[in-house]
Structures are given as structure tokens and as C-alpha cells.
């Protein structure tokens, strides 16, 4: 008697689990930090490693694509069925900066498994979630007896996501013909919790800037001059303090222009999720809730635009004291954007606001990084049902719908390729994205493999449902 | 025919100028930065060097005095005239931090002479101004034919002034018997300009603190959590922004309690000084005036208390971006105090203010460094006339009166020893105290030597005038 497909998938995964994890650990050892120029060779090594591994997996095409910045990896595994839909999987192989002294219990680029968790920078964001597709497609083939995937499978794994994807849009535009797809699967998000598998329907966008403030031409003595000239660190602080009003709303004029407000139905769906606010606070490692008045925590992080200061610096920060008025100060700000907001408009608004705030005698300049647009998939899109079904099989549980507070270049793919974007992620909030001791739950990682193994067949079978 | 005393002093100084400058350069090469623990051995080396040099100069006693922190140097050169007054010279042998990359044109601890200026960290603040007394006393002896000074001369040169003199008060109290003096000469201030010699009548006090703010237990992802928890960098910025009101007044409740207001006569004297505000701005390397409404620039820097942020830091300050809510942030604040303000009261007021400002979910702690009290000498004190006369002889010019915006432990000496404090300084505002490329004008340094050479005789001769 032959195995059921689910059993066959699970058996295949179990048999190949050890080699899969060994390979992933090898990849995680490459510190592919795109934000730090001295790690550029590592980002390249990461791309080369992945291309070679995808070829070994069975992809007929596996190429390193150059950009003006860090390289991306592109791969193809066509279906024998010429009428099959084409699916493009998106992820990234670069990671956030990480150093042991930031609070890691072990070396961030020396993966370790503790208590069923794989700890390393990139374990969840995003190498682990890219890599589960390599075993997923092989499990799909093994369980179905196919010699090629049920869909024309393409992968695009970029190398600059953690730096705001500055060249991604151009890369997608240049290669739009080869990237053409009927649907995009973004594997760079998370789900509600270990017990509540969810499908994400949208991501916030992101605009980032650094504001540099220049006061005296050099540090000057605070006794000789203090109290009589403007201090750029004070100006920096006042900018940050002026960023929000007393209601927690972003006080930059024009910031909320065009914002797509939450519908009552969406607010109801969010409210139905088993949200334990105290548990969420513990996951956030934070000690109070705080934010825009009139919205719940989930609404604040998923569906409301925000402004945060990611870094501030100026003057003497060493031990002891130094009685100076510093010459310069700077703030790094990031703005999360929701559907309806335009990054170019945000940049103009922030520039006008800052120019209005900075006092006489302080010169300022603002450098914006590349922005990421917000992205939202309709709740009733049939392809979402296909993804929810596959995830439900893997998790043996119904699937709910969420949004993602983080940002990714999904909107560029949607815009350039004209394809709907679906989000398949198995990471959970406690995974510590961008934080010390980032990890991925091994059980969930393997559920990701399993979801990937079911998805291609389900998508191909139900593609006729897609309008 | 014998030389006039003034000519004899000048000739002696000219003859010994080269050796004097060589010795000073040797001292300036010792990076005696008291605020940086790794320079502790250099601060000790500086003390040892000075004690040996004072002994070589002729002081009969030259000792290194231990404190719980950095060592001080004490020296004595008694007068043969047992009825002579006793004068204690105060200065410091430690210096501010300095690094080439802060904007120095040359190595800060490798003295160079360019265009009649000696550049090095400590050239003006305070090694140069301590050291001129060594040649001054010898010129005094040579010109008068005396074998001992006209006053019982004592020197106390501390090693922690740039760290807020945390152990100075205790040191003075412990050695009050040996330090006993009829007058204190503080050589750690400046004068109006090269063309306008002035005597300073008071210094502002100083209270310093670092406020540390703790938000999430680790850096967290600004996409996943941003907009829903408090950000400690925002809290830090809001503290700094709340430090001043719209009138430029310090907004800490109780801050102005007890402040001795300027008299009309003092405001007149300040207004009579040849003050070129644009030139002052250039010296301040600043691009606008800014401060407490209702006061002139001189009043703001000499006679009004102030608050400045000397450093602020939190989150990611490296290249590129890092989309986090930082775990911690900090601000370093300093408060300049004027006569009538009590540092203990200021500390209490700042603690209460900060506790009131910091939002829920952010933990904070405040660390105050040791404070320096403000100090003011009556305008009509006869000893001030003695100092003004000596300076007038050296500069061949009348002498005016100012105050000093900076701070020193002069008030402790006044309080513990019960002696009036006089300020003898030849530094000018462009000397760049605490800034890159600190320098001393060689001409003025030698006028300092000359003033010191005249002062002991004048003070002894006019001591009967002192009430």
C-alpha cells in the first residue's frame, strides 16, 4: 500500500532533516551583513554558496546576479507541464549587523542548537525561511513521484534587504522578462505563534533617513561658551521630541496623507486573534505599551504608520565627562508606512518639517536611504486560500490572517511583475529579528518545508480559481 | 647703574625663555587625561615630573600627594621674612581628552610652535598657566636680589580638575594646616583679549550628570514592535528638549533658587568692555547667538546659570541603517552654576525633574559626578588691586575686570582655607580649551611669567592694606 502524500512528505523531510540543517548552518556561518562595507566579500560568498547549493538541489538555472551593490541569486526549476503557473519565491541572503558584545550568548555567526532552537544571525531573518524551500521542493517531487515541480518555480534571493534594498527595484525592472510570474511567494515574514499558524496579507513600507546637525565648527568649551550659542545635540533632541504629538501621532505635517484606514472587518479579524498583550510585551522585551491613541497594539504595529528613532548620537559618549558643546549630532529615523502612503511624499514632508524645526545657527542635512513601499493583498484572493490550505495541512490546524509590521520589497515585485504577492513565513515573534540571540524554532522550520512541499501542487491544481 | 626692576625681570625671562619652553613641552608630552582610566599612569607620570621640576626650580618642599583618585603636587618655598604673607597658587596638571581624529592638525600630545603659538592639549588649560610661575618666581628673585620669595609661596596642583575634582575638597580638608594661606591665586582662567588684560573676579560652578534610560531588555525590531512600545532614545531626546523653555531659561523646577542676580554696576562694567559680538562668535566657531532672553552674551556666559547637553547616545550610530528600537540611551548634562546656587539642591531638582519626565515603561538612573561650587571675589578687595597692578606692569596697560564662565575648585579653597581667591590667567578665548588645536600665545605666556614675577613683591608690600 502506498503512503498518503502527507505521510510521504513527512517521511522524506525526516530522512533529509540532518543534512538540511547542516547545510543551513554552513550558510549561517557566512556573516553576510549588507549594511557594513567590510562585510561585502561575505555577502558575495553567501550568494556564491547559495547558487551552488540550489544547483545541487536540482534547479536547472542558478545564477549570481550583479547589482550596483550586493549580488542577488536567481534560480529556475521549470515544470514539465508547459501550462503550469509560474511562481516566484522571494527572500534575501543578507543579514542585520551582529556582534557578540551586543548581548549574544554565543557567537552570532556560529550556529548552535539549544532546546530545539537554532540560534544564529539570519536563522529566521531570512536564511532559514529561504532555505526551507530547497527541501520543500524535493519533498514535493518525492511524495508526488514527479520529476519536475507542479509549477514553474523561480527563486530571487536578494542581498540588500537589510540595507533597504537600494538596487532591488532596478534589478527587478532589468530582469522583468525572466522574473515574470503569475504569483509571488514572499518568504520573509512571520506567523502569529507556534500554535496559531497564520497567513500575512500585507507589509508596512519603510522610509529611513539620517539627519546630521552641525553647530560650532569644532567642539567648544561649555563653560566659556555654554548658554550663549546653539547646541546641535539639543537641536537633535528637539527634532526627535517633536516627532510625535501628545496623542502619539506622528507630528510631521502631511505624514498621514493618503493613509488607507482600517475597515471595520479588518479590525474585527485582528480583535479575534488570541492576543495576550502581556505575553506580547514579554516578547517585545518591553515594559509598557505606548503608541498612537485610539488604536490597539495589533493595529499600531500592522496597520498604522509610525516614526521611530533608531539611533541618536552627538558629543562625548565615553567614560566620565567632557564639558563641551559638541560640534555635531545626528539622528537616524525610520518611518513605517501603510497602504496609500508614498515614500517620495514622506521624504518631502520630513525635509520640510526638519527645515522648520532646526534653529538658527545650526546647519542640517538629511540623507534618505532607499525606501520600501507598503504592500497589501486582498483578503479574498483565491491564491491566499491555496497558501492557507497548504499551511493548514502542514500544521494540522486552521489558518488565520494577519499583517506584518516589518517591511520588504514585495510591493516592487507586485508593481513591476503585475503579480499578486503571497506571504509564507513560519517565524514567530520571539525569534528576535535584528536582535541578539536571533533563532528559529526547528519544528516550525520543518513545517515551513512541509508547507512548501504542498503548496506547488495545490497552487497548480487551483490555479483556474485565480481570476 | 643698576637695571630697573622691570628691565631686570624682562632680561631674566628673555635669557631663560628657551629652556622654560623646552621644559613645558616635555610636560605637555605626557597625556595626563584624568577622565580616561587608561591614562591613569600618565597622570601619575605628570605629577612625578612636576614635583621633580619644582624641586629643581628651588622649592624646598615638592611632594606628590595621593588622593582616592589621581595624585596632586604640593610645593613650598618659604620667605626669609617670617612676617611675610602666605600665598597658595592653585592649578591642575591633568588635561581634557584629545585625539588626532577629533580635528587636530597635529598630534595633541606632540607640542608644536606655529606663528608664535604653542599648540598642545594642556598648553593653556592648564599646564602653561601653572608652569609660568616657575620662571616667574626665579625672575622675582633675580630682579630683586632676594634669596627667597617676598611671600611664603605654596603651590597645589591637582590631577582631577578635568574630571570635576572629585577628591579635591577632601584633599584640601585633610591638608588644611599645610595649605593655610592668606590668599589663593588661581592660575586656571583667561583674560579678555591680547589687547585688554583683565582680572577675573569669579567663576561659575558646575554640576554634571549622566542620565541612562532603559527600554526593551535588548534592541528590538522597529517593524515588528515599532509604534507600540516606548523608545528610550525618544525618552532621552524628550528630556533634553524639555531642559529649556521657549525663553531659553532652564526649565528644571527650582533651578534658579537662590541665584545672586547681577547688580546694575556689574552690568555697566560688563557693557563697557570692548565686546565685538561677531568676533566672539568667530572665536566660538559658532553661527548664531542663542540663550536666555533678557541677558547679553557676556551676562549669559559669566553670570547666568545654564544647562547644556555634552553628549547624547543611543541605538545604532554606525554606517547605513539598523531598524531597531534601541534597548538603552543616555545623555550627559552639565549645569553651570552662579553664586547663590547650591550643587546639592541642583542635584535634587534635576532628579525630581527627570523622574517626572521619563515615561512609563522606561527605567532611568542618574549618576552625578562631583560638583564644583561657584565663586565670586568682591570687586573692591585690596588684593585684587595688587594683582591688577602687577598685571598692568607686565602688560603696560590698565587692567579691567571680568568673570569666568568656566568652573574650578576655587570655591573649595575659599571655603576650607578661609582665604580670598584671586584669579591670574593669561589665556585668551581663542586658545581652544577642551577643543582640538588647543594653544597658548607665547607672548602672553611670558607676560604671565612677568606678572608672577611682580606679584609677590607687590602683595607683600601692600599686605597691610588687606583687611
Task: Explain this structure.
Chains A, B: Keywords: Hydrolase, Metal-binding, Protease. Chains A, B: Residues 202-359 form the Peptidase M20 dimerisation domain. Chains A, B: This is Dipeptidase. 2 copies of one chain form a homodimer. Chain A has 467 residues and is α+β, with helices and mostly antiparallel strands. Chain A folds into 2 domains: 5-203 and 375-465, Aminopeptidase; 205-259 and 305-368, Alpha-Beta Plaits. Chain A contains 14 helices and 18 strands. Chain A has a 6-stranded mixed beta sheet, sandwiched between helices. In chain A, helix 4 (168-174) packs parallel to helix 13 (410-417) and helix 12 (382-395) crosses helix 14 (442-462). The first copy, chain A, starts with a helix and ends in a 5-residue tail after the last helix. The model of chain A has no long low-confidence stretch (mean pLDDT 94). At the A-B interface, strand 9, strand 10, helix 6, helix 7 and helix 10 of A face strand 9, strand 10, helix 6, helix 7 and helix 10 of B. Strand 11 of chain A pairs antiparallel with strand 11 (306-315) of chain B.
